[in-house]
Amino acid sequence: VYGSSTTSRVENVTIENNMMEDAYYMANYLWYINGLNFNNNTVTKDTTSYQIPYGVYCYYVDDFNVNNNYIGASDDASYGYGYGLYMYYCIGSNNPKSQIRNNCITTGKQGQTAYGYYPMYMYGSGNIDVINNSFNRSGGYTGTYYACYISQGGGITLKNNNFANLNSGYALYAYGLWTLTESDHNNFYTN
Q1: How far apart are CA 85 and CA 30, in angstroms?
Q2: CB of 84 within 8 A of CB of 107?
Q3: How far is CA 62 from the centre of its chain?
Q4: What backbone phi and psi angles, to 5 degrees, belong to 76?
């Protein structure tokens, strides 16, 4: 689903109660949208069909909610996603803020050495409550990768989340003076 530019957006998109399995590159390719509800979906990666697969790719998506989803490898998958939830210049709503809530997002596959970069990658995004989620980097390449990467945003709240990097790297990267406005009751784990 995509619009053509920041001045020509698709309006009020709802993607709910779906099973999405084994997409080639991006299971969900969401560009230039104003008003997205992506809720109660299961997005799984089953094979090695593409080198750096994305579960949900959001590019200039504003006024959104991403709630109650599972994004990750299926039980019999060879590898998992490279990026679980990727958000680039996605600005949430005000009063109330946009929600990323009650999701389980996993990249990589335990015991595997490919993919698995970032369960949540967010750049230039803001006005978001990130609450009650589990972000797990289960396997993948070694190096400086994070269970959650947030950079150059603003007005982001992190509460009651689990950030687990079961491979090498870190649990959370947050860069920018006003990126996080509140962080409380989160669990951080690195291997």
Answers
A1: 11
A2: yes
A3: 15
A4: -100, 15
What is the enclosing helix (H) or strand (E) of 154? strand 154-159
The partner residues of 29 in beta bridges, in order of sequence, read: 57
Sign of CA dihedral 113, 48, 106, 123: positive
pTM for the whole thing?
A: 0.94
Q: What type of residue sits at position 30?
A: L
pLDDT tens for 136-188 read 998 777 888 999 999 999 999 999 999 999 988 899 999 998 899 999 999 99
| CB 53 within 8 Å of CB 45 | yes
What letters, b where the CB count within 10 A reaches 16 and e where it falls short, cover 115-135?
Answer: bbbbbbbbbbbbbbbbbbbbb
